[in-house]
Design goal:
By secondary structure, the protein is of the alpha+beta class. It has two helices and two strands. Strands 1-2 form a two-stranded antiparallel sheet. It is extended.
């Protein structure tokens, strides 16, 4: 019987300024962009000290108006329907691919005869260059990719 594989993940924070061990992740925003930086206690305090006078002069942004429960329910239902349709499309594409591959696998494959190239005679001191043989186009087997459609059936 197969055993259960256990995994231990250990995260070590490294100060993004000097590479020393960090104690915290500081999150801040500027111009509508949110940033995170891992810092040791000293660098975190320096950042807070630099921003302190700006924070004191700033105002908190106005909260966005809460959506009504009915509006949230409508949006949730639309999301569920879209996800359901997408899931049906993915399953249909997977089924068509399975059918295509099983049909392909059941078809007999006739191996093509391999043509041996004729030996080319080389001479070292010809005054007239010999005409080089033209290479045949390499035969590459055709690969048929499954066709996916974004149209809803």
């Amino acid at each position: 019987m197969g055993g259960v594989a256990l995994q231990r993940i250990q995260v070590e924070l490294v100060d993004d300024i000097d590479g020393s061990p960090a104690n915290q992740t500081v999150t801040f925003a500027l111009d509508g962009v949110t940033y995170e930086i891992d810092l040791n206690d000293e660098h975190a305090q320096q950042l807070r000290d630099v921003l302190d006078r700006y924070i004191k002069a700033a105002r908190a942004p106005k909260p966005e108006p809460a959506r009504s429960t009915r509006q949230q329910e409508r949006e949730d239902e639309q999301t569920r329907q879209a996800n359901k349709q997408l899931t049906e499309q993915i399953r249909g594409a997977a089924q068509r691919t399975r059918e295509h591959l099983s049909k392909k696998a059941s078809e007999p494959v006739d191996p093509e005869p391999v043509e041996q190239p004729e030996p080319v005679e080389e001479t070292l001191f010809d005054t007239i260059p010999a005409e080089e043989p033209k290479p045949e186009a390499a035969r590459v087997p055709a690969v048929s990719m499954p066709q996916f459609s974004s149209a809803v059936d």
